[in-house]
Amino acid sequence: MKAVFIERFGDNGVVRFGDVPEPTPGPTELLVQVHAASVNPLDFKIRSGKLRQVIEFELPLVLGNDLSGVVRSVGSAVRGFRPGDAVFARLDKRRIGAFAEYAVVDVAHAARKPDRSSHVEAASVPLVGLTSWQALDLGGVRAGHKVLIHAGSGGVGSIAIQLAKQRGAEVATTTSAPHEALVRSLGADHVIDYRSQRFEEQLSDYDFVFDTIGGDTLLRSFRVLRRGGVLVSVASLPNARFARSWGMPSHLVWILGILGWRVSAAARRHGVRYEYLFMKADGKQLGELGALIEQGLLKPVVQRTFPLERGADALAFVESGRAEGKVVIEIVPAPSSAASDAAGAERAQRKEA
């Protein structure tokens, strides 16, 4: 099968397109013909080798963490899915490989694709949707809370804004002026232009901050929170508490504690709770996200698609930071509009029957 893969870690020059063996599903897995796979910052972090201390990857490695496609075969212990089902999923962190014609999906990580979404739209959701959902859960976000979501026009931010509004929160976000209309259309109440404004001078007494940028932005974010507030980051280094929970060796726990001392000190000084999040694949949660899409309450935001053979270009585009919403690799082209209309009519007839 054709795939986008690496044989060593490095910059985008190590990315290859070519033939690799088709994966074989285990007893609790699905073999999925991939129609579309989204591109995430996680993909180029894996490519560069930045996550080798957290997850051990075997080379050669097919890249790609989430997908939408059609089940072709199921393992002997699989229940609830059968060949022909359209699904979307975040792949197991130790067995990625969505940038390919076929991929293996743990049945516990899969959910049925929403009928109202194309495969391209559905593929854009799993990683960013689950990340946003779990971050808001970790922060205990609920109605009446004041929430700051960084980089609201990005893949994670564009979903997190919508989910926070679904929970009844008042939402502020950072972005650049050209993206203000998009984030307001998604539900942002307050928009901070990071190029001309300091968000910590505009906002105060917030209950929750979702950091997707890291670095200086993360450290400045503590000033926005009320005492007792929560800051969740997906962009910084794992902290010592996270490292212990993942069972990392004691020397790595110590190293991460040293590297993260400024963040830990800032959290203590401001009287807030800091959490590092590495999202977990969860088919049940993904199904709930799919239900929101089906009801028209959650809108995938896709800026651009690339064909599989241009997977390296898709990675470079996302790594450049220019993407608004999500970038998706389309592997099986969408049917013509006439075919789509016919498929829609067939679904409607089945429902009426």
Radius of gyration: 20 Å
Provide the residue-averaged pLDDT.
90
Put simply, the count of helices is 13
Shape: globular
**Low-pLDDT sequence parts:** 337-353
Query: What is the terminal-to-terminal distance?
Result: 39 Å
- H/E element sequence: EEEHEEEEEHHEHEHEHEHEHHHEHEHEH
Strand portion, in percent?
25-35%
What characterizes the major β-sheet? 7 strands, mixed
Structural class: alpha/beta
> Any idea of the CATH class of the largest domain?
Alpha Beta
How is the quaternary structure best described?
single chain
| Tally of strands | 16
Number of domains: 2
CATH superfamily grouping of the largest domain:
Medium-chain alcohol dehydrogenases, catalytic domain
